[in-house]
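Fold it.
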Amino acid sequence: MAETRKASRFIVPVAVAGVAAATIGLVPALAASGDPDLPEITAQQLIEKIAASDTQTLSGTFKISTDLGLPLGGLTSALGGIGGGPSSADPSEKLTELVSGSHTLRVAADGPERQKLTLLDGSDEYSLIHNGDDVWAYDSKSNEVFHEKAPAGADAPGAHEVPKGKELPGTPKQLADEVLKAAGDTTSITVDGTAKVAGRDAYQLVIKPKQTGSTVESVKIAVDAANGTPLKFTLSSVEGGKPVVDAGFTKVDFSKPAASDFTFKAPEGAKVTDGAAEKAAGEKGDPFEGQLPGGLEGAFGDFGAGSGEGGMNVIGEGWTAIAKIDSGAPAPKTDEAPKEIQGLLDSLGDKVTGKFGSGTVFKTKIVNALLTDDGKVYVGAVTKDALVDAANSGK
Protein backbone atom coordinates (compact mmCIF):
# COMPACT_ATOMS: atom_id res chain seq x y z
CA MET A 1 0.00 0.00 0.00
CA ALA A 2 2.85 2.39 0.86
CA GLU A 3 4.43 1.77 -2.54
CA THR A 4 1.06 2.37 -4.21
CA ARG A 5 0.63 5.71 -2.45
CA LYS A 6 4.18 6.70 -3.31
CA ALA A 7 3.62 5.89 -6.96
CA SER A 8 0.30 7.71 -7.19
CA ARG A 9 1.71 11.21 -6.71
CA PHE A 10 3.92 10.78 -9.78
CA ILE A 11 0.82 10.29 -11.93
CA VAL A 12 0.12 14.03 -11.72
CA PRO A 13 2.45 15.00 -14.62
CA VAL A 14 0.77 12.33 -16.75
CA ALA A 15 -2.73 13.44 -15.71
CA VAL A 16 -2.20 17.11 -16.53
CA ALA A 17 -1.27 16.13 -20.09
CA GLY A 18 -4.93 15.26 -20.66
CA VAL A 19 -6.23 18.85 -20.25
CA ALA A 20 -6.53 21.34 -23.15
CA ALA A 21 -8.59 24.38 -24.15
CA ALA A 22 -9.43 25.54 -27.69
CA THR A 23 -11.84 28.16 -29.04
CA ILE A 24 -13.06 27.96 -32.64
CA GLY A 25 -14.17 30.67 -35.10
CA LEU A 26 -16.18 30.29 -38.28
CA VAL A 27 -14.98 31.59 -41.68
CA PRO A 28 -17.23 30.88 -44.70
CA ALA A 29 -15.64 29.35 -47.79
CA LEU A 30 -16.89 27.83 -51.05
CA ALA A 31 -16.97 24.09 -51.51
CA ALA A 32 -14.34 22.45 -53.67
CA SER A 33 -15.23 20.00 -56.39
CA GLY A 34 -15.09 16.33 -55.56
CA ASP A 35 -16.67 12.94 -55.80
CA PRO A 36 -19.58 12.33 -55.20
CA ASP A 37 -20.92 15.26 -57.21
CA LEU A 38 -22.93 17.40 -54.79
CA PRO A 39 -24.26 20.98 -54.99
CA GLU A 40 -21.81 23.65 -53.83
CA ILE A 41 -22.21 24.76 -50.26
CA THR A 42 -20.44 27.35 -48.12
CA ALA A 43 -18.83 26.48 -44.80
CA GLN A 44 -21.38 28.67 -43.03
CA GLN A 45 -24.25 26.81 -44.71
CA LEU A 46 -22.73 23.45 -43.81
CA ILE A 47 -22.29 24.48 -40.19
CA GLU A 48 -25.92 25.59 -40.12
CA LYS A 49 -26.85 22.20 -41.57
CA ILE A 50 -25.03 20.45 -38.71
CA ALA A 51 -26.72 22.71 -36.16
CA ALA A 52 -30.16 22.02 -37.66
CA SER A 53 -29.61 18.26 -37.71
CA ASP A 54 -31.96 16.51 -35.33
CA THR A 55 -31.02 12.89 -35.76
CA GLN A 56 -32.76 11.02 -32.93
CA THR A 57 -32.50 7.45 -34.14
CA LEU A 58 -29.66 5.47 -35.66
CA SER A 59 -27.76 2.22 -35.48
CA GLY A 60 -24.50 1.17 -37.00
CA THR A 61 -20.83 0.40 -36.59
CA PHE A 62 -18.01 2.85 -36.22
CA LYS A 63 -14.29 2.56 -35.74
CA ILE A 64 -12.17 4.79 -33.57
CA SER A 65 -8.38 4.97 -33.68
CA THR A 66 -6.44 7.08 -31.20
CA ASP A 67 -2.74 7.89 -31.24
CA LEU A 68 -1.70 10.38 -28.57
CA GLY A 69 1.98 9.58 -28.94
CA LEU A 70 2.02 8.13 -25.42
CA PRO A 71 3.68 4.83 -24.41
CA LEU A 72 0.37 3.64 -22.96
CA GLY A 73 1.58 0.08 -22.57
CA GLY A 74 4.21 1.35 -20.17
CA LEU A 75 1.66 3.57 -18.49
CA THR A 76 -0.64 0.63 -17.81
CA SER A 77 2.24 -1.43 -16.45
CA ALA A 78 3.52 1.41 -14.29
CA LEU A 79 0.18 2.23 -12.74
CA GLY A 80 -0.57 -1.44 -12.12
CA GLY A 81 -4.29 -0.86 -11.59
CA ILE A 82 -3.87 2.01 -9.11
CA GLY A 83 -7.25 3.54 -8.39
CA GLY A 84 -9.23 0.73 -9.99
CA GLY A 85 -12.79 0.24 -8.81
CA PRO A 86 -14.34 -2.98 -7.52
CA SER A 87 -16.10 -3.70 -10.85
CA SER A 88 -14.29 -4.23 -14.15
CA ALA A 89 -17.60 -3.34 -15.86
CA ASP A 90 -17.60 0.23 -14.46
CA PRO A 91 -17.65 2.52 -17.55
CA SER A 92 -15.28 5.01 -15.92
CA GLU A 93 -12.69 2.20 -15.84
CA LYS A 94 -13.43 0.22 -18.98
CA LEU A 95 -13.82 3.01 -21.51
CA THR A 96 -10.35 4.37 -20.82
CA GLU A 97 -9.27 1.71 -23.32
CA LEU A 98 -10.50 4.01 -26.09
CA VAL A 99 -7.63 6.46 -25.50
CA SER A 100 -5.23 4.22 -27.42
CA GLY A 101 -5.21 1.86 -30.35
CA SER A 102 -8.04 0.98 -32.72
CA HIS A 103 -11.47 -0.22 -31.65
CA THR A 104 -14.69 -1.25 -33.31
CA LEU A 105 -17.99 -0.26 -31.73
CA ARG A 106 -21.63 -1.00 -32.44
CA VAL A 107 -24.00 1.83 -31.56
CA ALA A 108 -27.76 2.34 -31.40
CA ALA A 109 -29.84 5.31 -30.31
CA ASP A 110 -33.53 6.05 -29.91
CA GLY A 111 -33.75 9.61 -28.67
CA PRO A 112 -32.36 10.87 -25.35
CA GLU A 113 -33.86 7.99 -23.35
CA ARG A 114 -32.21 5.00 -24.99
CA GLN A 115 -28.67 4.44 -26.24
CA LYS A 116 -26.45 1.41 -26.51
CA LEU A 117 -22.77 1.02 -27.26
CA THR A 118 -20.89 -2.26 -27.61
CA LEU A 119 -17.10 -2.33 -27.65
CA LEU A 120 -15.79 -5.32 -29.60
CA ASP A 121 -12.42 -6.74 -28.59
CA GLY A 122 -11.83 -10.04 -30.32
CA SER A 123 -14.26 -12.58 -28.91
CA ASP A 124 -14.94 -10.37 -25.87
CA GLU A 125 -17.63 -7.70 -25.76
CA TYR A 126 -18.31 -4.78 -23.46
CA SER A 127 -21.80 -3.26 -23.61
CA LEU A 128 -23.05 0.01 -22.13
CA ILE A 129 -26.84 0.51 -22.19
CA HIS A 130 -28.86 3.56 -21.15
CA ASN A 131 -32.59 2.78 -21.00
CA GLY A 132 -34.74 5.35 -19.22
CA ASP A 133 -33.71 5.56 -15.58
CA ASP A 134 -31.18 2.74 -15.79
CA VAL A 135 -27.59 2.49 -16.97
CA TRP A 136 -26.23 -1.03 -17.39
CA ALA A 137 -22.73 -2.14 -18.33
CA TYR A 138 -21.62 -5.71 -18.99
CA ASP A 139 -18.09 -7.08 -19.45
CA SER A 140 -18.24 -10.55 -21.02
CA LYS A 141 -14.58 -11.27 -20.25
CA SER A 142 -15.02 -11.01 -16.48
CA ASN A 143 -18.76 -11.79 -16.55
CA GLU A 144 -19.39 -8.68 -14.44
CA VAL A 145 -22.31 -6.25 -14.55
CA PHE A 146 -22.40 -2.63 -13.40
CA HIS A 147 -25.76 -0.96 -12.69
CA GLU A 148 -26.49 2.70 -11.98
CA LYS A 149 -29.84 4.35 -11.25
CA ALA A 150 -30.64 7.84 -12.50
CA PRO A 151 -31.99 10.34 -9.91
CA ALA A 152 -35.41 9.33 -8.57
CA GLY A 153 -38.55 11.20 -9.58
CA ALA A 154 -39.78 11.41 -13.14
CA ASP A 155 -40.22 15.18 -12.95
CA ALA A 156 -37.02 15.93 -11.07
CA PRO A 157 -34.31 17.88 -12.89
CA GLY A 158 -31.88 15.45 -14.43
CA ALA A 159 -34.16 12.49 -13.76
CA HIS A 160 -33.40 11.00 -17.15
CA GLU A 161 -29.77 12.05 -17.46
CA VAL A 162 -27.02 9.47 -17.54
CA PRO A 163 -25.11 9.74 -14.23
CA LYS A 164 -21.96 11.84 -14.39
CA GLY A 165 -18.95 9.84 -15.49
CA LYS A 166 -21.10 7.11 -17.10
CA GLU A 167 -21.87 8.93 -20.37
CA LEU A 168 -21.53 7.10 -23.67
CA PRO A 169 -18.33 8.03 -25.52
CA GLY A 170 -18.46 10.81 -28.09
CA THR A 171 -19.91 10.03 -31.48
CA PRO A 172 -18.65 11.97 -34.52
CA LYS A 173 -21.54 14.42 -33.98
CA GLN A 174 -20.66 15.03 -30.33
CA LEU A 175 -17.02 15.54 -31.22
CA ALA A 176 -18.01 17.98 -33.97
CA ASP A 177 -20.31 19.90 -31.63
CA GLU A 178 -17.43 20.42 -29.20
CA VAL A 179 -15.26 21.89 -31.95
CA LEU A 180 -17.97 24.17 -33.35
CA LYS A 181 -19.59 25.43 -30.15
CA ALA A 182 -17.50 28.62 -29.83
CA ALA A 183 -16.70 31.43 -32.27
CA GLY A 184 -13.83 33.88 -32.84
CA ASP A 185 -11.20 34.98 -35.32
CA THR A 186 -8.66 32.27 -34.61
CA THR A 187 -9.81 29.70 -37.15
CA SER A 188 -10.15 29.01 -40.85
CA ILE A 189 -13.11 26.82 -41.77
CA THR A 190 -13.65 25.66 -45.34
CA VAL A 191 -15.46 22.98 -47.28
CA ASP A 192 -12.91 20.82 -49.07
CA GLY A 193 -14.65 18.49 -51.44
CA THR A 194 -16.90 15.52 -50.84
CA ALA A 195 -16.55 11.90 -49.77
CA LYS A 196 -18.36 8.60 -49.31
CA VAL A 197 -18.60 7.56 -45.66
CA ALA A 198 -20.47 4.38 -44.68
CA GLY A 199 -22.09 4.44 -48.10
CA ARG A 200 -23.45 7.97 -47.57
CA ASP A 201 -22.70 11.12 -49.59
CA ALA A 202 -20.87 13.62 -47.40
CA TYR A 203 -19.26 17.05 -47.47
CA GLN A 204 -15.79 17.50 -45.96
CA LEU A 205 -15.55 20.36 -43.46
CA VAL A 206 -11.93 21.33 -42.73
CA ILE A 207 -11.02 23.38 -39.66
CA LYS A 208 -7.51 24.82 -39.18
CA PRO A 209 -5.96 27.19 -36.66
CA LYS A 210 -4.85 30.60 -37.93
CA GLN A 211 -2.58 31.03 -34.92
CA THR A 212 0.98 29.77 -34.79
CA GLY A 213 2.12 27.66 -31.88
CA SER A 214 -0.79 25.20 -31.86
CA THR A 215 -0.17 21.47 -32.05
CA VAL A 216 -3.38 21.03 -34.07
CA GLU A 217 -2.84 20.72 -37.82
CA SER A 218 -6.51 20.31 -38.71
CA VAL A 219 -9.89 18.92 -37.75
CA LYS A 220 -11.88 17.28 -40.54
CA ILE A 221 -15.56 16.46 -40.24
CA ALA A 222 -17.44 14.47 -42.88
CA VAL A 223 -21.06 15.67 -42.82
CA ASP A 224 -23.98 13.68 -44.22
CA ALA A 225 -25.22 15.65 -47.24
CA ALA A 226 -28.84 14.60 -46.69
CA ASN A 227 -29.41 15.15 -42.96
CA GLY A 228 -26.38 17.06 -41.63
CA THR A 229 -25.23 14.33 -39.25
CA PRO A 230 -21.43 14.17 -38.83
CA LEU A 231 -20.27 10.75 -40.02
CA LYS A 232 -16.54 11.00 -39.41
CA PHE A 233 -14.20 13.08 -37.24
CA THR A 234 -10.44 13.32 -37.76
CA LEU A 235 -8.02 15.31 -35.57
CA SER A 236 -4.47 15.63 -36.93
CA SER A 237 -1.32 16.93 -35.25
CA VAL A 238 1.37 19.18 -36.72
CA GLU A 239 3.75 16.32 -35.93
CA GLY A 240 2.21 14.36 -38.80
CA GLY A 241 1.86 10.59 -38.86
CA LYS A 242 -1.35 8.89 -37.85
CA PRO A 243 -4.28 11.12 -36.80
CA VAL A 244 -4.60 11.76 -33.09
CA VAL A 245 -8.27 10.76 -33.30
CA ASP A 246 -9.97 9.16 -36.30
CA ALA A 247 -13.57 8.17 -35.54
CA GLY A 248 -16.12 7.35 -38.19
CA PHE A 249 -19.04 5.17 -39.15
CA THR A 250 -18.41 2.18 -41.38
CA LYS A 251 -22.14 1.33 -41.43
CA VAL A 252 -25.07 3.52 -40.43
CA ASP A 253 -28.86 3.29 -40.58
CA PHE A 254 -31.06 6.19 -39.46
CA SER A 255 -34.22 4.14 -38.94
CA LYS A 256 -35.54 3.47 -35.41
CA PRO A 257 -33.83 0.52 -33.66
CA ALA A 258 -35.96 -2.20 -32.08
CA ALA A 259 -36.94 -1.61 -28.44
CA SER A 260 -35.37 -4.97 -27.58
CA ASP A 261 -31.94 -3.54 -28.45
CA PHE A 262 -32.03 -1.56 -25.20
CA THR A 263 -33.28 -4.24 -22.80
CA PHE A 264 -30.78 -5.93 -20.51
CA LYS A 265 -30.88 -8.87 -18.12
CA ALA A 266 -27.82 -9.88 -16.15
CA PRO A 267 -26.50 -13.27 -17.36
CA GLU A 268 -26.78 -16.14 -14.91
CA GLY A 269 -23.80 -16.27 -12.57
CA ALA A 270 -22.64 -12.73 -13.36
CA LYS A 271 -21.37 -10.56 -10.52
CA VAL A 272 -23.56 -7.43 -10.29
CA THR A 273 -22.21 -4.23 -8.74
CA ASP A 274 -24.57 -1.36 -8.01
CA GLY A 275 -23.38 2.21 -8.43
CA ALA A 276 -24.17 2.96 -4.79
CA ALA A 277 -21.87 0.13 -3.68
CA GLU A 278 -19.18 1.40 -6.01
CA LYS A 279 -19.40 4.86 -4.49
CA ALA A 280 -19.27 3.50 -0.95
CA ALA A 281 -16.16 1.48 -1.79
CA GLY A 282 -14.49 4.58 -3.15
CA GLU A 283 -15.30 6.52 0.00
CA LYS A 284 -13.62 3.85 2.16
CA GLY A 285 -10.22 4.40 0.65
CA ASP A 286 -9.05 6.44 -2.34
CA PRO A 287 -5.42 5.60 -3.21
CA PHE A 288 -4.98 9.14 -4.60
CA GLU A 289 -6.39 10.92 -1.55
CA GLY A 290 -3.87 13.35 -0.14
CA GLN A 291 -1.27 12.39 -2.74
CA LEU A 292 -1.60 15.34 -5.16
CA PRO A 293 0.82 18.20 -4.48
CA GLY A 294 -0.80 21.15 -2.74
CA GLY A 295 -3.48 22.93 -4.72
CA LEU A 296 -3.52 20.37 -7.55
CA GLU A 297 -5.82 18.24 -5.45
CA GLY A 298 -8.39 21.04 -5.44
CA ALA A 299 -7.67 22.06 -9.00
CA PHE A 300 -8.48 18.66 -10.40
CA GLY A 301 -11.44 18.21 -8.08
CA ASP A 302 -13.10 21.41 -9.36
CA PHE A 303 -11.05 22.28 -12.41
CA GLY A 304 -11.22 25.90 -13.42
CA ALA A 305 -13.32 26.96 -10.47
CA GLY A 306 -11.22 30.02 -9.84
CA SER A 307 -7.82 31.62 -10.06
CA GLY A 308 -4.88 31.66 -7.74
CA GLU A 309 -3.61 28.78 -5.65
CA GLY A 310 -5.57 25.63 -6.36
CA GLY A 311 -7.37 27.29 -9.29
CA MET A 312 -6.72 27.98 -12.94
CA ASN A 313 -5.87 31.02 -15.03
CA VAL A 314 -6.12 30.98 -18.81
CA ILE A 315 -3.37 32.68 -20.81
CA GLY A 316 -4.16 33.65 -24.40
CA GLU A 317 -7.15 32.56 -26.45
CA GLY A 318 -8.28 30.24 -29.19
CA TRP A 319 -6.11 27.34 -30.24
CA THR A 320 -3.10 28.66 -28.30
CA ALA A 321 -4.88 29.12 -24.96
CA ILE A 322 -2.81 27.83 -22.06
CA ALA A 323 -4.18 26.86 -18.66
CA LYS A 324 -1.95 27.83 -15.73
CA ILE A 325 -2.41 26.02 -12.42
CA ASP A 326 -0.46 26.96 -9.29
CA SER A 327 -0.19 23.88 -7.10
CA GLY A 328 1.35 25.81 -4.23
CA ALA A 329 3.92 23.05 -3.65
CA PRO A 330 7.19 21.95 -5.29
CA ALA A 331 6.90 19.32 -8.00
CA PRO A 332 7.74 15.75 -6.94
CA LYS A 333 11.29 14.70 -7.76
CA THR A 334 11.22 12.07 -10.47
CA ASP A 335 14.36 10.38 -9.12
CA GLU A 336 12.33 9.46 -6.03
CA ALA A 337 9.71 7.66 -8.11
CA PRO A 338 9.51 3.87 -8.45
CA LYS A 339 11.58 2.62 -11.39
CA GLU A 340 8.53 1.87 -13.57
CA ILE A 341 7.12 5.37 -13.08
CA GLN A 342 10.56 6.96 -13.45
CA GLY A 343 11.06 5.29 -16.84
CA LEU A 344 7.63 6.44 -18.00
CA LEU A 345 8.24 10.05 -16.96
CA ASP A 346 11.65 10.05 -18.65
CA SER A 347 10.07 8.84 -21.90
CA LEU A 348 7.38 11.52 -21.73
CA GLY A 349 9.38 14.49 -20.49
CA ASP A 350 11.93 17.01 -21.73
CA LYS A 351 13.89 19.08 -19.21
CA VAL A 352 13.63 22.82 -19.94
CA THR A 353 14.97 26.03 -18.39
CA GLY A 354 14.14 29.72 -18.74
CA LYS A 355 13.52 32.93 -16.83
CA PHE A 356 10.92 30.98 -14.82
CA GLY A 357 13.58 28.56 -13.55
CA SER A 358 13.50 24.92 -14.57
CA GLY A 359 10.94 22.22 -15.17
CA THR A 360 9.82 19.36 -17.38
CA VAL A 361 7.60 19.41 -20.47
CA PHE A 362 5.46 16.28 -20.73
CA LYS A 363 4.56 15.55 -24.34
CA THR A 364 1.73 14.07 -26.36
CA LYS A 365 0.98 14.62 -30.04
CA ILE A 366 -1.73 17.14 -29.24
CA VAL A 367 -1.51 18.33 -25.60
CA ASN A 368 1.70 19.35 -23.84
CA ALA A 369 2.19 20.28 -20.20
CA LEU A 370 5.04 22.13 -18.47
CA LEU A 371 5.47 21.27 -14.79
CA THR A 372 7.90 23.71 -13.21
CA ASP A 373 10.09 22.69 -10.30
CA ASP A 374 8.29 25.19 -8.06
CA GLY A 375 4.95 23.50 -8.71
CA LYS A 376 3.29 25.54 -11.46
CA VAL A 377 1.59 23.76 -14.38
CA TYR A 378 1.13 25.20 -17.87
CA VAL A 379 -0.94 23.01 -20.18
CA GLY A 380 -2.52 23.37 -23.61
CA ALA A 381 -2.68 22.15 -27.19
CA VAL A 382 0.47 24.15 -27.91
CA THR A 383 4.14 23.55 -28.63
CA LYS A 384 6.87 23.23 -26.02
CA ASP A 385 8.21 26.69 -26.91
CA ALA A 386 4.79 28.25 -26.35
CA LEU A 387 4.63 26.74 -22.86
CA VAL A 388 8.12 27.99 -21.99
CA ASP A 389 7.22 31.49 -23.28
CA ALA A 390 4.10 31.51 -21.11
CA ALA A 391 6.09 30.48 -18.05
CA ASN A 392 8.74 33.13 -18.78
CA SER A 393 6.07 35.82 -19.00
CA GLY A 394 5.19 35.10 -15.38
CA LYS A 395 1.47 35.59 -16.03
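The chain has a mean pLDDT of 74.
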